[in-house]
């Protein structure tokens, strides 16, 4: 049958042209995969556990479908009969994918503490066939020439692309904030096509009449290739070129980041690059962004509306069946090949230092039936693994689009890695709709691990006592206790003499030699008495000097050790008149009464001056002495000396005369010992008469001096 030939031809093309999805299953979750980390996420190579990784050769191949299930025993017994013995599950939209991913000579290395680069070469093939009616390829599907059949195919599409890549990856640490760590990366790659082929048809119908052996077909079919024949063909490396890119981010949660930091001999912090530091790691990436611009190849559209004898297709290959059996509607250059853009997410849980569980998803971002567009198969996988620098072991459990559940196993031992994402399913199950294998050889150079046997935070090569914990201040060795008093020398103020810890390793002192140790002596630097905890009581009043306001004069305790000589309840130290009884509110001094004030003014009125002058007459000296005696009885009272005149003469001359006489009295008192701060002189002239100035007696009364208390 021509249509069967077309479909089988496309499948043969796919078998020889294979892809990237489901590559290196299990191995890509390994933190020691080195340059392979760029395949799913270019950010992986930043802060890698390898300082240098050289991949020599690695290959990963995968086949998955929802139509045919192989039996391993049949394949091992006779490979040529494997299709005849296989179980089939035909449906109106059977699909399959077939791929190969060859990682050629590639290298990854760190530039500095934060950045890493990789240079890689890669060969890739990718084949998808979508929505085939399984009855068309059913091994006993009713295609006997003696039987009628009618098939309405609907939409069918398929594409195959083979290309080579050469690229560069740059990855960098974006955030390193103690517990939170983020790195990002990008891969840029040049693509060189080695060939492509694709088919697309919608609404194709086939009606076979066994009686007249005629086949009636309808619909249109698009077929294109570039130097790829239906039997495998030859590839031309000049079929086209393009550019692609991969982008990725990785976040790590590092709750115990401090345990991965050690100290060197200088006390500087250094990071243990040889250890994984995360408890949880999350990654997200988008790969294969771009396309290949095909420079050769043709796309042919055929009109399938025709009735033909079935014998007209015998012995013809795919292109012959189309070219000789149907009319060519149009022919144009092949459309560009779209890369199998995909979204990858990854979560890795560090159970302990060597056991991990990884959750990975691959999600296609390309349209299923778009012309000349390949796509990855959707997949979700959980991979428990044992991981160390030299050896890792994985056992991925996956659910793959079309193929269903898969169970695999893989390992890495030094430079060798190999495995399969489905080997256990194939070995244990009756049939398998998917199978993959990978293997390769590389030269890994591991990051140095910082050793710290005694767990004192100092790397062993900088630790003078690597077997015994000690501080960096003592080069990693424990401190000594020379005098054996339980206080380490570093904390012992007397390392050669034993003493209690409370005194920093020194024996207790008695600084004042009063027989009481300083620790128990309230006055350690002053000789004192035991009953007073080493403090003195100089005046013997029962109150120690440091609490005694009058340490040299005995006094009552309630008076804080001070005496009260005049018994006015104000202690002498606070009493401005300690020898004279006076109220507290007047600072212990007696108050100036109205009678005293009156007596002062009577004395002051008898002070005589030379006529028209401010000179005090000698006969007034006895009066001044009486005034001084009164003022001394009130040493803290302040007074105003006031001068007054009668109205004889001008007002200005009287004012000056009154001021002069007031100052004369004030100066006399000061000269006799009265404090100047207690006296103020002021003249009022003729302004404040106390009698009439119209007669001699009145004027005499108005010529006076008064001494008044300042309140």
Automatic annotation (TrEMBL):
The keyword RNA-binding does not apply. GO terms for biological process: cell adhesion. Residues 596-711 form the OmpA-like domain. Its main location: membrane. Pfam families: DUF5723, OmpA, TSP_3. PANTHER family: LIPOPROTEIN YIAD-RELATED, STATOR ELEMENT OF FLAGELLAR MOTOR COMPLEX. This is OmpA family protein. Coiled coil: none annotated. Residues 457-485 are annotated as: Disordered. Keywords: Cell outer membrane, Membrane, Signal. Gene3D superfamilies: OmpA-like domain, TSP type-3 repeat. InterPro entries: Bact_OuterMem_StrucFunc, DUF5723, OMP_bac, OmpA-like, OmpA-like_sf, Thrombospondin_3-like_rpt, TSP_type-3_rpt. GO terms for cellular component: cell outer membrane. It is found in: Cell outer membrane. GO terms for molecular function: calcium ion binding.
